[in-house]
Amino acid sequence: MAEVGSIADKVKQQADIVRVVGEYVQLRKAGQSFRGLCPFHTEKTPSFNVHPTRQIYHCFGCGKGGDVFSFVMEMEKCEFPEALRIVAEKCGISIPRPKERSSEGRKESQQRTALVEMHCEAQSFFVKQIEGTLEGKAARAYLEDRGLDKDAVSRFGIGYAPSGGDALLRHLKSKYPEKLLTESGLISRDQGGKLFDRFRRRITFPIANESGKIVAFGCRALGDDQPKYLNSPESPGIRRQDFASLVEGYMDAITVARAGISNVVASCGTSIAEQQIKLLSRFTKRVVVNYDPDAAGLSATERSLSLLLEQDFEVRVLTLPPIGDKKADPDLYIREKGADEYQKRLREAPSYVDYLIARARQMDLSTGEAKSRAVNFLLPYVQKIPNRILRSEWATRIAQQLRLEEPVLRAALSKAAAERRSELKLQPELVARAAKPVERRLIRMLAEAEGFRQELAQRLQNARLYHGLETEKIFAALVIASLSGRPVQATEVAAVLEERDRRMLYEILFEEASEPTWEEALSCIQTLQQRQAEQELAEVQRSIEANPAGPDLRELLTRKQELMRRLAATR
Ligand SMILES: [Zn+2]
């Protein structure tokens, strides 16, 4: 581990975050930092920032932020070691190769090869059936009715699984052991232990993985057989993409499947039906909804979201950008931009939370009342989530994105839940900004005023000046780092913070600001002292009004005088 640590440090020191990020995102210089369109959420005006000297990035839209490694991990959907390797490679630093695979790893890889081979044979078998058999002819006619001519059928590699029940089995059984046959998902076993073809009387379309190898089949019933769509289940170790893509039409489904998305379900026009959701949940609990970007698609998306959330799905929503002046459905998009580009879009599709919040943010948010309306649009979805932790995370994100006071929003949410209302009553204080300017300025000083950071930290700590502030935890982390005497690293401080505090810290670090001075620091301290005194005075006043006993009252009155004198002096 120590070795990995030192390599990571070395790579981080030599890597230029602006250059690495610049390979994924077009960046423009903007003041002290660089700015571009956020790769993690859909936006039209850039709110994604990269700081060249701090070596961090932060998006003011979705709140994502971190260092060069977390950026690559997020972009490439990989773990830290892989991100380290990628960054090192980009910067021309050589790092030691990982150890030889274990024998277990070798065995798994052998099995994987055999399964891929088996799928490849099944594919040619299905294609032969559709091209050369009587049953296959009926399937071809069916497809032709739906606008898929002979060319399209062969281009998509569409095949046919015959009705017999053991045709594929007979084809494969001499070459592969029974165990592997059933593990492939192509062959099933009945209660008596007899093997049979899983797909019967179905149109098949091959599903390829990222390297273009067929790893599963999506199948559609010919007539009204149920279920209409049947996909082969996950094959062990083969599929990395554990998610299903939910599209509107059958053509979309075929094109998406050909693009290598292992599970694709078409809900055929309207939002997904409950039965389809049950079927889907056997394969995955993660869904990317990708309906057409028109009004019908929009409301179908929202209906499907409700149903999927109720069933505990992890849902993301992909809205494809228009191609030229045409709104793009998956089929059109893949034909115009290619499968890779679509895959990329799918991988980066924002979670339903971000999607819905983005919709809410398009609403008018200028007044407290307008904000209430936006929150009320979101509330029914929040209430559908059975998982308490997820629900709570939601509240945090809504508060951040709509700039609401989180505790107030939470209180309003649980009150609505308790009263089984799907309407929220919001108080005006919900609308206040979380961190006051003086707090932001002091945080900034602690992070970068090399000259007097330590002294400032000491004063703040001695007078307990940041206690009880919205930003208390950020101050605490920065004060500890400053008192250590070492240079303060934004990412190190951020690492000990909770998500919402980390976001706020990054936001503050990216604000354009002038060089801080000690005089300014002193005046900020004074403001905090004053605020502290005002708060204590209010408390003392409340205690006095509660009619305490004689000696207590005298003590309170003395304290009140003292505080009023102190406040008068600073004004
Ligand atoms: Zn973003």
Summarize the structure.
The protein has 4 domains: 2-90, DNA Primase, Chain A; 111-240, Alpha-Beta Complex (DNA primase DNAg catalytic core, N-terminal domain), CATH 3.90.980.10; 354-431; 437-570. Helices cover 54% and strands 11% of the residues.
Number of helices: 25
How many domains, in number, for the residues? 4
Query: What value does the average pLDDT take?
Result: 80
How widely separated are the two ends? 56 Å
What Rg is obtained from the alpha carbons, in whole angstroms? 30 Å
What gross morphology would you assign?
elongated
Describe it for me?
The chain is α+β, with helices and mostly antiparallel strands. The protein folds into four domains: 2-90, Zinc finger, CHC2-typedomain (DNA Primase, Chain A), CATH 3.90.580; 111-240, Alpha-Beta Complex (DNA primase DNAg catalytic core, N-terminal domain), CATH 3.90.980.10; 354-431; 437-570. 54% of the residues lie in helices and 11% in strands. The chain has a five-stranded antiparallel β-sheet with strand order 1-2-3-4-5, with helices on both faces. A hairpin with a 5-residue loop joins β4 (56-59) and β5. It is elongated. The two termini are 56 Å apart. The site of zinc ion has 8 residues, from loops. Zinc ion is lined by residues 38, 40-41, 48, 59, 61-62, 64.
